[in-house]
Design a protein that fits this description.
Elements lengths: L5 H5 L4 E6 L7 H17 L7 E6 L11 H17 L8 E4 L5 H10 L4 H5 L2 H8 L5 H5 L11 H15 L5 E4 L4 H18 L8 E4 L32 H9 L17 H14 L3 H7 L5 H27 L2 H29 L5
Parallel strand pairs: 1-2, 2-3, 4-5
Amino acid sequence: MNISNLSRVLGSSARIVSGIQPTGIPHIGNYLGSLRQWTELQNSIPSNSSSQCFFFVADLHALTVPQVPQDFYQRRMDTLAILLSIGIDPQRSTLFFQSDVPYHTELNWLMGCHTPMGQLNRMTQWKSKLQLHEMDAVTFLNTNLASSGKFNLGLFSYPVLQAADILLYGATHIPVGKDQSQHIELTRTIARKINSTFKKELFIIPDIILNSSSSIMALKQPNKKMSKSDQNSKNYILLTDSEQDIRKKIAGAATDNIEGITYGDPNRPAINNLLNMTAAMTDSSPITIAEKFKHARHSEFKSSVADIMVGSITPFARSYQQWKANPSELQSIAENGAKKAMNQAFPFMKDFKNTFGLGP
C-alpha cells in the first residue's frame, strides 16, 4: 500500500499496530524499512479522525533469547527514546512497553489454545533454526536438542504472541516489511479460525500495509542485509551515529572498478545499495540519482551520499541524547501509553473471555 494514498485507503476509523524489539539502536535499514513508515502513518491521520496508532516496544518477544536484566532494561528505555526521536508523538499515537499491558500474554494463551502446532512449524524463521540441524519439528522433539536449553517454547510459539499483539487492539492495518508478511498471514488465519469456531466476529481481519522499499544491504558486504548484530560495525549506520562516524562509514563503503554511476546492473551490488539508500532517504528514484552522477567519481558520489545521510540522521541522534538524559520523562510516557492501551483493550478482552466461558 502506498503511503501517499494512505489517508484515503485507511478511512476514518483505522487502527494501526506495530512493535519493535529492544535489541539495540536501529540502523538505517530498520528506519527505512519500517520505522519511518510508522511516523508517516501517524502523521497521515487527520486530527479530527477517530483512527489510532498503537506502537510498542516488544520487550516480551526479546525474551526468547537470554538477556542480562540491567542491560535489557536500558535497551528498552533506549528503544523508547529512539522512537520518540524519529517523530513518534505520544499525543498522536499510543506508545508503550508491551510487558506493561498484561492483556498481550493473556490473549496469547487463549489464542494458543486454538492454534495448531503444524501452522507454527511452517513458519520460516522457526524452520530456519531447524535447518541448521537438518530436521523437522517432529524429529527435533525426539532429540536431545529439544531439552538442551538452546531452543525454547517461546521461540516456537512467539508468532501467537505476535498475533495477540495485533488483534488485541482491533487492528485494521499492519505495516510490515516483506520478511514479516508470513506472520501477518498466520495472524489472519488464527483470527478466522477462532471467529469460525465461536461463530462470532470476535476479531477484525487486518490488512497488510507492505513497505515496498528495497532492502538496505551491508556497506562493505552488499550481498547480505544490513544488521546491527554484524561483528563489523562498518557495515551499518545507526540512527545515533555521529556525523564523523557516518562520513567514515560511507567513505569506506564498498564500490567496484567500473567508472561512473549506474543503477540496476547486477554486477554492481555495492553501487546499487548506495543508490537505494539515498533514494529511500530522499523519496526519489535511484535511476534519477544515478543519472545525476553518471560521470562522477565514486568518491564524489559517496561524499554526496554522506551529506544526505548526515542531514537526515544527525537530528535523530541529537533528539535521542535529549530523551535519554530524561529517564523519568521516558517512564512517564510509557506508563501513560500503557494506561491508554489497557483502556482500549479492556472491552475487547472482557467480551473475548466471556465467549470462552471465563465470565458471565
